Amino acid sequence: MRLSQLVAPDLLALLENDPAEVRAALEEVHAEDLAEIISDLPTDKAVAILRALPDERTGEVMERLTRESQVQILGSVGRDDAVSLLSEMSPDDRVDLVQDIPDELANQLLTQLEQAEPAAAEELRELSAYGEDTAGGLMTPEYVGLDPQTKVWAAIEEVRRLSRENQAETIYSIYVVGYGTKLLGVVSLRDLILADPSKSLEDVMTENVVRVTPQDDQEAVASVFAKYDLNAVPVVDERGVMLGVVTVDDVVDVVIEEATEDAQMMAAVVPLEDSYFETSFATLVRKRAMWLSVLFVGTLLTANVLEAHESTLATVLALVFFIPVIVASGGNAGAQSSSLIIRGLAVGEVTPRDWFRVAGRELAMGLALGTMLGLLGFARAFFVDTGVSTMDIAVTVASSTIAVVTVGCLAGSLLPLAMQRLGLDPAVSSTPFITCLVDVVGLLVYFAVAKFFLGL
Amino acid sequence: MRLSQLVAPDLLALLENDPAEVRAALEEVHAEDLAEIISDLPTDKAVAILRALPDERTGEVMERLTRESQVQILGSVGRDDAVSLLSEMSPDDRVDLVQDIPDELANQLLTQLEQAEPAAAEELRELSAYGEDTAGGLMTPEYVGLDPQTKVWAAIEEVRRLSRENQAETIYSIYVVGYGTKLLGVVSLRDLILADPSKSLEDVMTENVVRVTPQDDQEAVASVFAKYDLNAVPVVDERGVMLGVVTVDDVVDVVIEEATEDAQMMAAVVPLEDSYFETSFATLVRKRAMWLSVLFVGTLLTANVLEAHESTLATVLALVFFIPVIVASGGNAGAQSSSLIIRGLAVGEVTPRDWFRVAGRELAMGLALGTMLGLLGFARAFFVDTGVSTMDIAVTVASSTIAVVTVGCLAGSLLPLAMQRLGLDPAVSSTPFITCLVDVVGLLVYFAVAKFFLGL
User: Fold this and answer.
1) Measured between CA atoms, how close is B19 to chain A, in angstroms?
2) Is pLDDT at B18 greater than 80 in this prediction?
3) pTM of the model
4) Cα separation of A196 and B309, whole Å?
């Protein structure tokens, strides 16, 4: 049972009878839980509760609502209220929302925001310029940036002030910036409260700051967090100017999102924007049908191969028995290789420069695995009741399995590397595509081998 | 080029000529980078550099070394030095290491540690009791826990002290604990520095603390972090007693690790413990061969199905042409379903209780996708040059495609749910297994349909 189903009735009653009490009642409820409750309410009740909250909390809760609820709420309140709801949200979430709502509503809100808060509108425009999946798209410009001559005691005072006014996404990293907000160093809040209060920030800062550029892909940003165990990372342009900060909470979401996206792409589903149940049936059909029909048409080539070898099949019908097992073993081995390499690329353990190393390894791997499966196939084929020599069939099955598994391993490992080098997402060259390729190539190999051993 | 290759020669020269300077030279280098440099050095040089570092940094660097380097270093230094290296590490990393090294070495070190630092040894024993993949296995007992009556100014002083002595994994969350370390509330460092210094912690703390139990799976812990945007989460037993804290840096690693493990399992690879290149060829063969041979033997059942229908095939050889395309389309649709459901289960969007909802949706999905692909198959089969009516073949292909795709969607979606309900990892019931199942079932369906329409 969802939390909201338990709490919502009480909350609505309270809203009716004693609206002033709502704020106090919700004080201890986590913004995330509150968002869950509100998402399930009718829009007018949701708005009423948002209005009852202190400004700062309104923003926190708005940020955590589902995209659907956010759009409904923004659409149902007046233009002024919509702008004030927007301006309570933190800049990075605000941009994501504005990028996702219908263009007409977005433009109206932007015009309104321009009048109410020109600085926020300008900022929104700047942030919108970065791709949603880049460091620029993830960052917020609300960081603590202080002058190198600032004394430690004054820095603590400033952190207090910014934090009180909710002007910083994180106060646990304090960035030391020089002329033109050039990034000079970083001081953690931990170091700050430990330092001698009379020292300057330049004396206590760490100069070697791990940083990312606004163009960096969010997956690369996540790797940096994972590697250096960071709470936040500064986003810095090519001249060393600090543009904003990406915080670890956004990165946890990114990592989960990317893993889901990869899993879907690896199964030939166009990545969903919402969860499985939130995606409408029609959208899901569309996102699955696309690659499924491409694969179907691709695999139809196997019908051509088989048709072309009709006379061979007519002569030795027993060859048919092993068609599915041979193409499947190539496909399975290829699936293993592609998944290992795609994940390796995603976490940075493998790079396209490893081409020859991967090729050598997978060639040997294909021969080893193929030989093992070939022996199993040989044993099974030996028991086939057929017109021709069972030995010939068994040798054909074994040799074909070795060849097809090797092809599968090579194709499965090298295609993702090629994709990456071409600047495409390697997850596209995944299991179903490898399988489709191996189905067609596998049959060609099988018939070539059969003709050789059976003397057809 | 790796960083270490650039820096290592200079560093070794410095170590030779002016060992006192090493500490100063490395002061600005991030512990992670230092670990990378040291991992590539011969063990004796690595130990020399570790010895040159201040105690606190030694621990930080040790924690970040590869398991292999850690074990080599512990094995090569004297017993006393090994114990002091161990005790510099934070408790959670220490436990992971001790669980991974050879039992004999681990026992020797434990005995030694018992004499040198009985409290640390006791703690290590307690932490070892939790599974590596649980909240208990991830947590560290070094958190800031203060009495509810502590004044804010005194709390800040205490945080300073603990932080200076490196006694806390995170100081950004301060836990308020009562008699018997029962968790009463939490105060963020942010709230603490903002609060009136003369107030007590109980006046400023948040009582509704998001928490996990030591038995919670690490994937569930990661979901809690993602949902509530946390920096740290307290681990609390069933009586409400606080045992430790899990920090967000560990969770980022967990999420990446779990995604890799799932991707490998979904491609029928027994999950690797190391990266693709670090895993030896023999190990990789073993981890791939296991499921690959199970799948091969499973798919061999298709040979039995085909053998049993030998006379049908002999009569209408054209049926052979569509065998690969029919089984592949069922397999691909099944792969899509299983991947959607497995990811949905992993992130908690789908639960086994959604059984009927999923079944209904996937039944409709299978019929929709199957009909679409069936029409494509119909069109292709219509052009086959065959002895019998091409219409009959085309109808057979179309109907079988619909049936097999529907079977694929149902099997692909319901098997992961069944796995989860049985307490198994749903990622096991993945693409290759669905494909194998659909290969066999698909052929049975195909021949049944063929016999019906072709009147055989």
Assistant:
1) 22
2) no
3) 0.75
4) 86
